[in-house]
Amino acid sequence: MSESHDQKKEKIIKAAGIVFSQKGFHQAKMDEIAERAQVAKGTLYYNYASKSKLFAATVTQGLNQIMDAIEDKLESDLPFLEHFHGIVSTTIRLYVTNGEVTRIWANEMSSGIDDEVLVEIRTVRKKFNTFIEDRLKYGQEKGYLRPLPPRLSGMAIIGIIDALCSHYLENPDQDTIEEVIETVFTILSAGLALTKIP
Q: Per-residue pLDDT tens for 128-175?
C-alpha cells in the first residue's frame, strides 16, 4: 500500500526535526533528511523547495500542534484548576514530544538563517504568544486569574516551560516528566490563580 502525500510530508517533517535539532540549520543536509525520512531527494524538494522552507515548516507545524492540543483541552467542563492542570500537562508533554522543534526555536533564532525564514518562524512564535495571552485574558475575565498584564504573564509562562522542558530534554534522567509538570503547574497556579476560585 503506497503512502499518501500527507503521510510523506509528515515523515519528512519528523525527519527534518531530528536532523535540524542534532546538527543545526547550517550543518543539516537535505540528503540526510531524505534518507532519514526514507523518501527520494526529488520527493523532498517537490514538497519543500529549499532547506529554509523545510526548516520553517518544521517549526510552524510543531507550534501549531501544541496550539491545537491546547484548544482541545479548553473544550472540557472540568473545574478551573483541573482544567488549567490539563493545559499545562498537554503543553509540556507536547514540548517534550516535539523536542526537536523545541531545540530548533531555542537555539536557531539568531544564527544567520535567511531573513524570510526568520520572519516566518517569528510570526508563528508571535501567534503562539498571542494564543497563550488570549487564554490568560479569558481566565482573568472569568475571575480565575490575577489581573496581571496578560502579555507579560504569557511570556513568563512560555519562558518557564521553555526552560524546564529544555532542562528535561538535556537531562532526562534527573527528573520525570510528571515532576516537570507538577513544578510548572504549582508555580503558575500559586502565582497566577486567585486564592478563591469560583
A: 889 889 888 888 888 888 888 999 988 888 889 888 988 888 898 999
Q: pTM of this prediction?
A: 0.73
Domain region containing 165: 59-192
The sign one gets for the Cα dihedral 98, 168, 25, 67 is positive
Joined grid coordinates for residue 172: 532526562
Q: Are residues 94 and 161 in contact, defined by beta-carbon separation less than 8 angstroms?
A: no
Q: What is the CATH number of the domain that holds 79?
A: 1.10.357.10
> Maximum distance among all alpha carbons in the chain?
59
How many domains, the chain?
1
Angle between helices 30-37 and 51-73 (to 10 degrees): 50
Q: Are 44 and 37 in contact (CB under 8 A)?
A: yes
